[in-house]
Design goal:
The complex is a heterodimer of chains A (554) and B (483).
Chain A: H1 2-11, H2 22-33, H3 42-47, E1 65-72, H4 76-87, E2 92-95, H5 111-114, E3 118-122, H6 125-135, H7 142-152, H8 155-162, E4 170-171, E5 185-189, H9 193-207, E6 212-215, E7 219-226, E8 231-238, E9 244-255, H10 264-270, E10 277-278, H11 287-294, E11 299-300, E12 305-311, E13 329-331, E14 356-357, E15 362-363, E16 368-373, H12 401-404, H13 406-412, E17 415-418, H14 421-428, H15 440-456, E18 477-489, E19 492-493, E20 500-502, E21 508-514, H16 531-549
Parallel strand pairs in A: 1-2, 1-9, 2-6, 9-21, 10-18
Antiparallel strand pairs in A: 3-5, 4-5, 7-8, 8-9, 11-19, 12-18, 13-16, 14-15, 16-18, 17-18, 20-21
Chain B: H1 8-17, H2 23-29, H3 50-53, E1 60-61, H4 71-78, E2 84-92, E3 96-98, E4 102-111, E5 121-125, E6 131-136, E7 138-141, E8 144-146, E9 150-153, E10 159-168, E11 210-212, E12 218-221, E13 224-231, E14 235-240, E15 247-248, E16 252-261, E17 271-276, E18 279-285, E19 296-304, E20 310-318, E21 338-339, H5 342-348, H6 352-357, E22 384-393, E23 398-406, E24 417-422, E25 428-431, E26 437-442, E27 445-452, E28 459-465, E29 471-476
Parallel strand pairs in B: 2-12, 3-13, 15-22, 23-29
Antiparallel strand pairs in B: 1-2, 2-4, 4-8, 4-9, 5-6, 5-10, 7-8, 9-21, 10-13, 11-12, 14-16, 16-19, 17-18, 17-20, 20-22, 23-26, 24-25, 24-27, 27-28
The complex binds flavin-adenine dinucleotide (FAD).
Amino acid sequence: MEGKHREEMREEGGISRRSFLGSALAVAAGTAALGLSACADGAAAADKDSTAPHTPVGMPQSWDAEADVVIVGYGGAGGIAAVIAADDGASVILVEKYPDDTATEIRHVPSSRFCGGICVCARDAKEGSEALYELSFGTTPRAVCDVWGEGATHNVEFWNSLGAEYPEPTWDVGEYPELPGGHTIGTSRVEGGGPRMFQVLRQNVIDRADKIQVMYETAGKRLIQNEETKEIVGVVATAKDGKELNIKAKKAVALCTGGFEWNEEMKQNFLRGYPSWFYTNPNNTGEGILMGQAVGGALWHMNAISARAIPYHPDWPKGTQIGLQLPNLFVNRYGKRWFYEREWPSHNAWVEFVNFNSRTAEYESSPAWVIYDDTARKPLISPQSKGFLGDTKDLQYWGPEDMRDIEAAVSKGWIRRGNTPEELAAEIVKDKENAGRMTPEALADTIARFNEFCAKGVDEDFDREADSLIPLATPPFYAVKVYPGGPNTQGGLKKNEKGQVMNPFDEPIKRLYCAGENGSVYGFLYPTGGGNVCEMTIFGQVIGHAMAAETAWE
Amino acid sequence: MIERAGERAALHGASLEVQGTPARDAVTEGHRPTAGEGSQESRWAAPRSTDREGQGAPVLDAGTQGQMPPIADAAREGLGAPAHEVVLTLQAEKSEYPVGSFAGFMVLARCLSGCSLAGSNIAVLAEEGALLAELPLAANEEGVWSSGPFALRVPSTPGEWRWPIEYRPAPVGLDTSEGSPSDVSPAGTDVSGVPSDVSPAGADVSGAPSDVSPAGVSHHCAPLDFCFTTVAHRTSLAVWGVPPFPISSGEAFTIEVGAQCAEGCCLQGRTINVLNGEEVLASAVLDGGTESLPGMYRASIALAAPDIPGFYDWSCRLHGDPTDAAAVLGASGTQPLAVPGALSDTLSAASPDAAAQHPMESQHDAPEGLGGPGQDGGLAHRAAHARLVFTVGVHPDSEVVVRVMEERSAMPIEGAFITLMAASGFPYRARTDSGGLARLPVPSGSFRLSAAQTDYDKRQMDIVVNQEQAEIEMRLVYNPDLG
Ligand SMILES: Cc1cc2nc3c(=O)[nH]c(=O)nc-3n(C[C@H](O)[C@H](O)[C@H](O)COP(=O)(O)OP(=O)(O)OC[C@H]3O[C@@H](n4cnc5c(N)ncnc54)[C@H](O)[C@@H]3O)c2cc1C
C-alpha cells in the first residue's frame, strides 16, 4: 500500500498535490543565498596561515556524518519534513534520542506515535487563517496564519497520499465557533489513531532509506554555526556511546524536538501556572528550544499549552488522562466550585485552574479536585485513554493499572473516598497539598448547592447546562486531585511562514528551521483536539520543501 | 476507656524506636507543613499559607521556645548561674481533639549547658496534678533529648484542658553514662484510677523541680503546658435515592439516609428526622450498617411528596448529644491512658503530614470507633444535617421512551443520561438500561430531549409529548477525547 503511494509520488516528480506550499519556498531558497554579511571575526580568520584550507570560526575541523538536511527529532514534524525533503531530492539525516524498535518492543515513542491521531482541518483557507489569528490573539503573524489556513485545507489529502486512511473531516467542531473563522474548523481521525498515523509515516521514512538515514539513540546538543556567515551548518549530537558527533548539514538544519513538557525549569519560568503535568513522551525536554536560543533564536508562545485537568501522582509521574462520567463536579482547594466545569474536557479549560490569589499567594484551584459519586465510579478511566506506558507494545493505555482498580487507588491516596461529603473532605485534607484548606462543611455545602441546581435544572452559579446537572448523592463519594496539564506545550522557537527560525529582530537565522511542538503556531487558545497534528503536518511539509530548496553551502 | 493497661511497657519501646529523629528538623517542619517528599519537595506549588490560619499545621509547636537554642549560646547564658537550665519543647499533632481520642505528642529537652539528660524523665500531669504518664528521655540528636512520640487519651468530655509537662531529673547516683531508660519505672501503672505510682524522680510535681545531677550540677526547668480542647465527635449524613425528577403530587417516595461518626463510633439506634423547617415529617432509626459502606449506619425513610408542585428544600437531621460534662452518658473524667504503639509511627515520621495522615485510625479499628465495638462509648456527638432537595410536579399522563445507540454500529449505549426539559419547569431524568432504553413518565407538553454519555457527542432534539407513546431513537456519534 505504502509502496504504491510512493510510486505515485515518484511519478509526479516528488511534488504531488503537496505543491500548494511551493510558492512559499522559493523565497526561502533566495534568502539562504544572501548569507554574506560581514563578519566581526574576520580578523581572527585572517590571522591564520593563509595557505592552510580555511575553516571558518565556529566550524569543526572534521565531520562524522553529513547530509543536505539534518533534522533533530523524529516525531511527526521531523518525519514529515524528512519525507518531503527526500522527495524533493535532498539527502536527510534524522537525529533521534529514542532507540529504534526491536522485533518485540516499540521503543521509538515520540508523542506523535501515541497521540489520538486527530488532525484539525479547515474547510476554507481564508477562514482558517482568520481563525488561527484570533485563537492566537494576534501573536501569530498573518503570513504564518495564511500558510496554516491553506495547509489545513489539504491535511487529509496529504496523509492519504502517504497511505493513511483519514476520512472526510467532521466540520464545525472547533472549541471556539463564535470567534471569527471559528466555524471552518473540522477534524479527521484515522482509524487506529496516532499509532496508525505514525506507522504510515515510519513506513514512508523506511521506504526512502536511500535518502533518509535515521541516527537513533543520538541526542542533538548544539548547533554548529559558521560564525563568519552566521549560517547554521550542522549539529553536535551525542551518540549512544557518549561520543560527540559533528553532523554536517549542507543545506539546512531543523529542530523538531517537541515541546518542554519535561523540563521543570522551563515550565516554571514560562507557563502561566505551576505545576502542570503532561502525558507526552518524556524525551521532550526542550533541548531543541535551547539549541535554537543559543544561536540567537527568539521565543514565542511560551505560555501557551493545550491542556485540560489531569490527575498526577509522584509515584506515577507520567500523568494520565481520565475520562470522567457524569455526575461530576470540580472544586478548588477550598471545596468550592469556581468555573463552568462542563467545559473541562476542552483543551483550554486549564486556564481556569491557574487563577492566582494574590492575598493568599497561591493557586486556589490547582490542584483542584474532581468529585463524583458511586454511580460514576466504575468508568473513572475512560477505556479510550491512550498513552505511553514505557517500553511496551501496548500504546493503548498509560495510566497505572491501579488507577482502574479503585481499592488499590484509594489505598494509595490517588483516589480519596468518603461515605459522606464531610468524610470525603476529611480524606482530602490529608493530602499534603491540601493541608487543611478544605473544610467538611465547605464541601458538603458545595455538593448540596449543586444538587439543588440539579433538581431545579438551573445552575445559578455557573450556568452549566441542565443535561449535565446530575446530582451527586450516592455514597461513597470520590475525589481525584487534578492539575492543569495533559497533552503538550506550544512554545518554542519563533518561526516565519517558511518555518525559518527567527531572531529577536524578526530576521531569519540562516539555514535553521523548526516545526511541530517546538514553537507551534498556537499562541493562546487551541483550536480543538487535532491542532498539533495539524501544525506538524503543515509545517513539516513547509520546512521539508524549504530546506531541500536551499542551495548547499558547500 | 482505660482498659488498655499493659500497653504501658510498649510505650517505652515506642519512644526508643524514634531515637535519632532530628528534633530540630521536625520543629522546623511544623512551620512548613506542606513540604513534599523526594523530588517533589522543592515544587513551589506546595501551599504556603496554611500556617497563618493555624489550620493544617499538623505539628503544633507548643513549646516555650520555638526552637531549641544552640548549646554554645546557652552555655554562655548559663555562666555563673546557680543551676543549669533545661528547656522543654513540645510537639503535638494539633490543639483540638475529639473527645476520648488520642493526642500524640513528643517532648524534647535540652540542657542549655549541654549536659547529658540520661536517666531523666518527662512527666505529664493532669491539671489538678495527677500523674498521667512519665517517660524517660533518650538522646535524640546532639544535645537534644526526646521522650519519643507517645499518645495519651484525652478527656471524654468536651472542654479546654491544660496538662503541665515537667522535667524530672535523674535520681542522684544514677549512672547517666549509658542513658538507658530501661530501669526507670514507668509511671502510672494503675490505670484504673488516679495514678498512684508516682515515679521517685518526680516527688515535686507542683513547681519547677530543681535538682542536682550526678555530676554535681543542679538543673532547673520551667514546666510547660500542653493546652488543648476536646470537642464532640463530628457526624455527617448522606441522603440518596431521592428521585432526580419531579415527584408526582402526594406520591410516596423513599430516601436512604446514612450517618457516620468521624471517629468511627457506632451510631446504630440513633434517630434520623426528616424536617421541613423545624417541623418533623418523619423519623427512622439507624440500622447496624452495611459492609459496603463501612462506618455508615443507615435508615430508609418513607415520605410523601407535598401536593403543591414546586421545589422543596427539606433536611435530614441526626441529633447531637448534650455536651456539658454532666450530661454525657458514662463520662469518665480525665483519666487518661498512655498509649504507645502506632502513634509513634505518625509522630516519628519524617514528614509532619504523615503524622496527620492517620492519627485516629491507628488507634482503633474502624468501624468500632472510640466507643469500642458496637457502641458509641457515651462520647458526645455533634448534630449532623443534610439538605433533602427535590421537586414535585403534576401527575404524568404520558411516557417518553428513548432508545440510545451508537451512530454507525447501532449498538445500544448503556447508562446514557436522558434529560427532558420543559420551557419552564423542572427536568425529568433517566438513564438507559443495557438495551439502551430509558422510560420517562412525563406530563404531556413540549420538551427539549437530550442524550449524553461520556465519549459520545451529546445530542438534543425538541419533542412534543402527548398520550400516544412513541419510541424516540437517538444515535450518538462516538467521539472520544483522545488528545
Ligand atoms: C496522549 C496524547 C494524545 C494526543 N492526541 C493528539 C491528537 O489526537 N491530535 C493532535 O493534534 N495532537 C495530539 N497530541 C499532541 C501531539 O501528539 C503532539 O503535539 C505532536 O505529535 C508533536 O509532534 P512533534 O513532532 O512536534 O513532537 P514529538 O512527536 O513529540 O517528537 C519529538 C521527538 O523529538 C525527539 N527529541 C527530543 N529532544 C531531542 C534531542 N535533543 N535530540 C534528538 N531527538 C530529540 C523525541 O525523542 C521525539 O521523538 C496528543 C499528545 C499526547 C501526549
